[in-house]
Amino acid sequence: MQPLSPPLSRALAVTLLVAVTGGVWGLAVGPVLGAFQDAGDSIDQVSERLERYRRAGSDHAELERVAAEQRRRWQESGVFLVADNPALAAANLQKTIKDIVGRQQAALRSVQPLPPKGDGRTEKVAVRVRLETDTAALQRIIHEVESASPYLFLDQVDIRAQAMGAQMRGPAILEVQADIYGYMRSARK
Length: 189
Hints:
Blueprint: H1 6-77, H2 86-103, E1 107-118, E2 122-133, H3 135-146, E3 153-161, E4 174-185
Antiparallel strand pairs: 1-2, 2-4, 3-4
């Protein structure tokens, strides 16, 4: 074999140098730099996510404060029955009904709590009431119940006049049965 001319030898040397450098770059340096770039991108993504979580964490405390303030306002608004559980709310409701009926001098025959019903946010607390009264007192009782605070509602109202003898004078005596209910905030929030 014949020796190569110096320019051809230099060109071949430069070509080999470029090929070896390219091979080393492609096999060793390129993947390492790619891995560093991927790691940098992952760090950026994790940093952004971490910052969002920090903001959400700081927002969480503020949201808890706002929710507590809203619960306090609901309690003070007079809309909801205030009690630790539905049984206590029903007992308070029974007392309220007894007070209203007593003020109108009607005869309260029975007050029976009904099972509470809830939707997760509120509990419907109800009592079934049986009483005897005249028409004017019944009107005042209904007005007092429906204008009460916390809000109370009448449902399933059944009114029947008692049989009266021919000698009886005065207002008719009515037998009334009704469900009276209100709502309380659920303990589950």
